[in-house]
Design goal:
This protein is an alpha+beta fold. It is built from 10 helices and 19 strands. The longest helix is centred in the N-terminal third of the chain and has 17 residues, at 2-18. The two termini are 46 Å apart.
């Protein structure tokens, strides 16, 4: 991996040496990803791919151009830079652009596993076999995917930023199915050797067992206990809908006119911190700026949003290290979110609920109104009735439409354990389970 890092640094240098732009930024990556998919308790896909990617952003007379390639060869590098310059010259000057960033900042220790990068198809198959075996013992079928890989990522610009880092990742998920039910579990780690497939299977099998022959109850408002997967999904939509500076600047964020005001319950504190060793991913953003800890909501009060260099310069501020790869229409987003833990274990949330619904995860969620934070979707793979403090019958899946801020204003309990979740392709969430007094279910899902 050390050789790969040195080679990537040379690629970054070549781009900067060749470019005649006023300012130049280059992102280079060499990445390997392998995947084992299984369904009907059989592996049906094994694949591995190695990709290289180079993207160049240039600034000429305050005009911005961007181009990319999948080659590190000299001719390809030069062609990519030239094309970015051609695009820049054809565009109008951007009056809001001030400069690319000039400071990287301090970076946390890199958590990287060479074992994950070199994890073999046989090793993935053995983990999958553990899941299939557990499912078969109950005459259930198993489906899911085991992804391993990583690589080297580097970012540099003509103002002095230059940072290169390795990255490794492993993600295993499974759905265990009977004729009338299903159960879900997943795990995310930087080290594939630490993935406990047997424990994962036990969780999913238990949910499938409990939820067989689900019954139907009326839609309406219920007390809910949301497991971490569902919580992460809900918070991800909160991040997308308004925790980035661009959404505030464009007037489409729920944070607009609410900074310093109470917007959710006092027992909720939310922050983003890409330097925390409990999270995954790179310690710098896609402009090479070190990720900063940003308090988003503190004890229910709206505090801050995250910035990249473009949105920060518009307000005379500094980037918080939350830039996405250029070009993007979303602006900066929180990608390493944490929610403050509580002191009520999941089983106590359940035992303290007279009547409610336990939700394993959400499915097919979408945002209906970013300012009102209304999102919609369905429950899936383990929805249960809670009666008299005990998990009862499995329930047919619900459709729901819910104001996220209202839900977070009615948190009755928070678990002490945080689980690492990756949702919606927009970052890593370290979140607890939640008990919420009211959650609005609008109907029964057909699936």
């Amino acid at each position: 991996m050390a050789n790969s890092q040195k080679e990537l640094e040379k690629v970054l240098d070549k781009v900067l040496e060749y470019s005649s732009a006023d300012q130049t930024e280059v992102l280079a990556a060499e990445r390997t990803q392998a995947l084992t998919r299984f369904s009907n308790s059989q592996i049906h896909q094994n694949m591995a791919e190695k990709n290289i990617h180079l993207s160049v952003r240039v600034v000429k007379d305050n005009r911005i151009g961007w181009s990319s390639t999948h080659s590190f060869e000299k001719k390809s590098i030069e062609k990519t830079v030239d094309l970015a310059l051609t695009i820049a010259r054809a565009r109008d000057p951007d009056p809001d652009f001030k400069s690319l960033p000039a400071q990287t900042g301090r970076l946390r220790k890199i958590f990287f596993s060479e074992d994950t990068l070199n994890y073999s198809p046989e090793a993935r198959a053995n983990k999958v076999l553990e899941i299939i075996t557990k499912a078969s013992q109950n005459n259930f079928l198993a489906a899911g995917a085991f992804r391993t890989g990583g690589g080297v990522f580097g970012i540099a610009n003509s103002l002095g930023i230059k940072t290169v880092s390795p990255l490794s990742e492993a993600a295993l998920n499974t759905v265990i199915m009977s004729e009338t039910s299903s159960g879900y579990a997943n795990v995310l780690s930087d080290d594939a050797t630490k993935v406990n497939a047997e424990k994962l299977a036990e969780i999913a099998v238990e949910k499938a067992l409990r939820s067989q022959n689900p019954m139907e109850i009326e839609a309406g408002e219920y007390t809910v206990v949301l497991e971490a997967e569902a919580v992460a999904d809900m918070l991800a939509w909160l991040g997308i809908s308004g925790l980035g500076a661009l959404s505030v600047q464009e007037g489409r964020s729920f944070m607009c006119d609410n900074f310093g005001k109470q917007i959710v319950g006092e027992n909720l504190t939310l922050w983003d911190d890409g330097q925390d060793p409990r999270t995954l991913g790179l310690p710098f953003d896609f402009e090479g700026v070190a990720k900063q800890k940003v308090i988003l909501i503190e004890e229910g009060i709206a505090k801050n949003v995250v910035y990249d260099s473009y949105t920060a310069n518009k307000e005379g501020k500094k980037s918080t290290g939350h830039a996405l790869p250029a070009p993007n229409v979303y602006g900066p987003l929180p990608l390493n979110v944490f929610m403050k833990e509580g002191n009520t274990p999941l089983d106590e949330m359940i035992s303290g609920t007279e009547r409610g619904i336990l939700v394993t995860r959400f499915h097919y969620t979408n945002l209906e109104d970013p300012i009102k934070t209304i999102f919609t979707g369905m429950t899936r793979d383990g929805t249960f009735l809670i009666e008299n403090g005990k998990i009862g019958r499995g329930l047919k899946n619900f459709r729901f439409t819910q104001n996220i801020l209202e839900a977070l204003s009615q948190i009755q309990a928070i678990s002490p354990e945080l689980e690492v979740k990756e949702v919606l392709g927009v970052g890593v969430y370290n979140v607890p389970a939640l008990k919420i007094a009211k959650f609005n279910f609008t109907g029964i899902s057909p699936t």
